[in-house]
Amino acid sequence: MKKEDCFYFGKVVKTHGIKGEISIRIDADEPTAYLDLKYMLIEITNKLVPFFIRSFKILGNKAYVALDTVNTIELASSFAGKDIYLPLELLPKLNDDQFYFHEIGGYKIIDETEGLIGELEQVLEYPNQSLFQVFREDKEILIPIQDEIIKKVDKKNKTIYIRAPEGLIDLYLNS
């Protein structure tokens, strides 16, 4: 399976116990939506390798996982720091006004006062804040992705309507 057909699910943090279990940090809004996982893809030397799951226990955004072919602490420790992916079809379905970041590339961004800002280049993900990256007049504009700013998502017309904080867009265009 190719990485572009998958989404980032989390990371192996360390081993758990002495029988080859691993502890993972899940990067999902609702980790319990994945309680019935049958397998996960672990990135090893730039390839996604499938591992079937023997047991999967979730506690907050952490999970303790036993994989079918991993039964020693030594083997489990080789997974520490590895990224975990799942196929896109395992993403939970969203309401019409919600979106996954990988879905919205190329959407038009329209502000209530400024009008068309431009086309969404990409979503920049930082630890405390994700941002829309848009270019207008060869200038980069970064818009925080927050419920208070996003007013409407029109998936059919590939458009996101926003109300940017006063002066934000001018700050980028006039600098």
Overview features:
175 residues, 6% helix, six-stranded mixed β-sheet, six-stranded antiparallel beta barrel, mainly beta, 12 strands, SH3 type barrels, 2 domains, Elongation Factor Tu (Ef-tu), domain 3
In short:
Helices cover 6% and strands 48% of the residues. The protein is built from 2 helices and 12 strands; from the N terminus they run βββββαβββββββα.
Question: How large a portion of the residues is in β-strands, by DSSP E?
Answer: over 45%
- In terms of structural class, how would the helical and strand content be classed? mainly beta
Mean pLDDT: 93
Number of E-type strands: 12
CATH fold-level assignment of the largest domain? Elongation Factor Tu (Ef-tu), domain 3
* CATH structural class of the largest domain: Mainly Beta
Largest sheet: 6 strands, antiparallel, barrel
CATH superfamily of the largest domain: RimM
Strand order of the largest sheet: 1-2-5-4-3-6
What are the segments in which pLDDT stays under 50 over at least 5 consecutive residues? none
What does the secondary structure layout of this molecule look like, with pairings?
Layout: E1 6-16, E2 21-26, E3 39-44, E4 47-59, E5 62-67, H1 73-77, E6 83-87, E7 108-111, E8 115-125, E9 130-136, E10 139-144, E11 150-154, E12 159-162, H2 168-173
Parallel strand pairs: 7-12
Antiparallel strand pairs: 1-2, 1-6, 2-5, 3-4, 3-6, 4-5, 7-8, 8-9, 9-10, 11-12
